[in-house]
Design brief:
- By secondary structure, the protein is mostly helical.
- The chain folds into three domains: 215 residues, Hypothetical protein, domain 2 (Endonuclease III, domain 1, Orthogonal Bundle); 48 residues; 71 residues.
- Helix content is 73%, strand content 0%.
- It contains 18 helices and no strands.
- The longest helix is centred in the C-terminal third of the chain and has 64 residues.
- The protein is extended.
- The C terminus is likely disordered.
C-alpha cells in the first residue's frame, strides 16, 4: 500500500471515530508511576473498566507495595468486566515488581526531568512493559508524541484495511505518527480505543460493524474471508498435528514390536543349548531295539559260560597244587565261596567249581590206581 492511500485511510478512521465517540483526556493528577499502572489497566479494556480497576486496587490494598506482593490471581479479582483479567493483573504485578527492584521506591517522577528518549528507554527496560503502556506513558505523562497501539487497535486497523497481516504481527502502523499531528494525538487515540476494544471483545457486533463500514464498506467481507482462511488454516494445522501424532504412534508401535521380536529371539537362543541333548536323543534312533526276555537270557547264558571257563581254568591251574595239598585247596575254595555274595551268578560259578573238583578228584584217583599196579 502506498503512503498516500494509508494516510487517507488513517484520516478516515480519525474522522469516523471522532464522529461516534468523545475524546477522553488523561488525568493530570497522576504521577509517572500511577500513569504506568493505569496504562497496564487500560490496555485492551475500556476507559470505564480501567478507571474502576485502578480505583479498586487502591481501595482493596493498603499501598502499592502490598499490591506488589499479592498474587496475580487475587489481583485479577479487582479487574471486573475485563476481557482477560488475569493478563491485566499479571502485567500490573510485573511492572510493580520491576520498578521496585530497580529503584526500591515507587517515586519515579525524576523521569520527567530527563531527556524524553532516555526516559522512554528506562521505562522500556521495566519487566512487564508493553509497547502500549510505554506509548501511553510517553503521551500522557512525559509529553511525547506516541500513539498507544495494543491488540485491540491493531485488530481494528487490520479490519479497516490500514495495515496488512505482516504489519499486524510486528505491531506497527507505518506513517501513523506523521498522519496524526501531536495536537490531535490524545483525541485520535481515545476515540479509536473506544471503537477498538468492543471490536476485540465482540467482533461480530452489528453496532461495531456499522461504524467500521463507514471507514471501508468492503471491510466486513474481507474480515469474513480472513476468518474462513484462519479457520481452514487452524483445521489444517490440527489435521497435520494429528497425522504427525498418528505417524509417531505407528513408528513407536513398530519399534516396540521389533524390540519384542528381538527379545523373543534372544530368549529362544538363550534356551536353545538346553534343548540340544534332547535333540541328540531324538536323533539317536540308531540304537538297537531293547532286547526281549529270551535274548536277555541267551546273553546271560553266553556271559556265564566264559565265567565258568575262567573258573575251570582257575581250578585247573590250582590242580597241581591240589594234588600236593588237597586240604589247603579245599579250605581256600571254601573261603573264596564264603566271601562271594549269594547271587545267581555266584551259584552257577559254585556249581561249576564243584564239577571241576569232582573231575580233578576222579583223575587223581585214577593216577593213584595206576601207580599201585603190581610189578
Amino acid at each position: 500500500m502506498s503512503a498516500a492511500n494509508r494516510a487517507n485511510l488513517i484520516a478516515k478512521v480519525q474522522k469516523v471515530c471522532k464522529k461516534h465517540f468523545q475524546s477522553v483526556k488523561p488525568s493530570e493528577s497522576r504521577n509517572v508511576f500511577e500513569t504506568i499502572i493505569f496504562g497496564c489497566c487500560l490496555e485492551d479494556a475500556t476507559f470505564e473498566q480501567a478507571e474502576e480497576g485502578f480505583a479498586r486496587l487502591q481501595e482493596l490494598y493498603f499501598d502499592w507495595n502490598e499490591v506488589r506482593v499479592t498474587t496475580a490471581k487475587e489481583l485479577s479479582e479487582a479487574m471486573v468486566g475485563y476481557h482477560q483479567p488475569l493478563v491485566a493483573a499479571t502485567r500490573v504485578k510485573k511492572c510493580l515488581q520491576s520498578i521496585f527492584e530497580t529503584h526500591y521506591t515507587f517515586d519515579i517522577d525524576f523521569l520527567k526531568k530527563e531527556n524524553l528518549g532516555k526516559a522512554v528507554d528506562k521505562i522500556k527496560n521495566y519487566r512487564g512493559m508493553t509497547s502500549f503502556v510505554v506509548s501511553y506513558v510517553s503521551q500522557s505523562a512525559l509529553g511525547g508524541h506516541s500513539l498507544p497501539l495494543g491488540a485491540a487497535e491493531m485488530a481494528l486497523m487490520l479490519a479497516a484495511g490500514v495495515i496488512t497481516e505482516k504489519e499486524k504481527q510486528k505491531s506497527s502502523v507505518p506513517g501513523l505518527e506523521r498522519a496524526i499531528p501531536k495536537s490531535k494525538g490524545v483525541e485520535f487515540f481515545s476515540t479509536m480505543h473506544q471503537l477498538a476494544v468492543p471490536f476485540l471483545v465482540t467482533p461480530n457486533s452489528t453496532k461495531v460493524w456499522s461504524v467500521i463500514s463507514e471507514i471501508d464498506s468492503k471491510a466486513k467481507s474481507r474480515f469474513n474471508q480472513r476468518v474462513k482462511e484462519e479457520k481452514a488454516a487452524i483445521k489444517a494445522a490440527e489435521e497435520k498435528k494429528e497425522a504427525a501424532k498418528k505417524k509417531a504412534a505407528e513408528k513407536r508401535a513398530a519399534i516396540e514390536a521389533a524390540a519384542k521380536k528381538a527379545s523373543t529371539k534372544k530368549a529362544g537362543s538363550a534356551t536353545s543349548p538346553k534343548k540340544k541333548p534332547a535333540a541328540t536323543k531324538k536323533a539317536s534312533p540308531v540304537k538297537k531295539p531293547a532286547p526281549t526276555k529270551s535274548a536277555t537270557a541267551k546273553k546271560a547264558a553266553v556271559t556265564k559260560k566264559p565265567a565258568t571257563k575262567k573258573a575251570a581254568t582257575k581250578k585247573a591251574a590250582t590242580k597241581k597244587a591240589a594234588t600236593k595239598k588237597p586240604a589247603t585247596k579245599k579250605a581256600a575254595t571254601k573261603k573264596a565261596v564264603a566271601k562271594k555274595p549269594a547271587t545267581k551268578k555266584s551259584a552257577a560259578t559254585k556249581k561249576s567249581a564243584k564239577t571241576a573238583k569232582a573231575k580233578t578228584a576222579s583223575r587223581s584217583t585214577t593216577k593213584r590206581v595206576a601207580k599201585k599196579k603190581p610189578r
